[in-house]
Amino acid sequence: MISHPQQDVCCLMGDPIAGNPTQYMLEKAFAATQLDWRFLTFEVPSINFEGALRGARIFCFDGVMLAPPHRSQVMPYLEKVGDAARISGQVNCIKQVGGQLTGYNTEGRALRQLLEQAGAVNNAKVTILGAGRLARAIGAELALAGAGEIVFACRRPAAGQELQKTLLEQTPLTQCHIETITTECPLTLDEDCRAIVNATPASKPLPVVIDSLPRRAVVADVVYNPPTTWLMRQAEECDCPTIDGLTLLIEQAALAFEIWTGVSADRQAMRDAVEEFLIL
Q1: Residue 117 near residue 185 (C-beta atoms within 8 A)
Q2: What is the pLDDT of residues 194-209, one digit of tens each?
Q3: Which residues on adjacent β-strands are paired with residue 158?
Q4: Nearest partner of 56 among 68, 35, 36, 70, judged by Cα
Q5: How many Cβ atoms are within 10 Å of 225's Cβ, its own excluded?
Q6: How confident is the model at residue 159 (pLDDT cuts 50, 70, 90)?
Q7: What is the dihedral of CA 20, 21, 23, 27, to 10 degrees?
Q8: Residue 86 above 70 pLDDT?
Q9: In contact, 200 and 136? CB cutoff 8 Å
Q10: Measured distance CA(237)–CA(233) in Å, rounded
Q11: Cα distance between residue 159 and residue 35, in whole Å
């Protein structure tokens, strides 16, 4: 039973939004913790985003999850922004309190927490494949968390150079490098690399020399469907610890759940829900 006149509601906004498991996962999470909250999904084209966000504010939604393309468009409409979200320009989670909207990025935070559990952040060298939206969020979070060196390996060095400049200017990071990779010129990893993160949507073979993969390095992939990507298979064959995209998806949603509710999320219930939704 709710203790105030209006039920607690959160939502997801994106375009397109079909096939996104967030609503099903978070509804199961609310049920598992016996919270009488609801989660809705709205397909919102960019042209209508400002109005949709105004509606969420007017109707006092507790939280909003953002899917592309809105994560980089929302900054002008927020009263507060977390450091990693501000630096990366990527907000995927909003909390509303007293009509004030605060933006966060739980994607980078989720990976940072999982890498920290493996001791692969503080003063560590991390290689990130890609220089797009997710690479920005992950790079900003790891730089703020004390990574010693970050390497962005990407096909378009200009995108990586802009990101490199931002991190060196706005975080404590002192070493940030760009590697250009192609099918003809794959990435060779350094032995001192402690973590490798695929921040691209590619689930098939990547331009990486697998024989150079350090055996103690943690290998992570943001692709959650399928969770067993080419990179995950290669890492497992090399006996490297892994963090798959499904685990990351659940963790970033669990962090949003906890930001909104102040209650610990049942991650197993969320995993079961996603696996059921995706028929894994």
Answers
A1: no
A2: 999 999 999 999 999 9
A3: none
A4: 70
A5: 16
A6: confident
A7: 180
A8: yes
A9: no
A10: 6
A11: 43
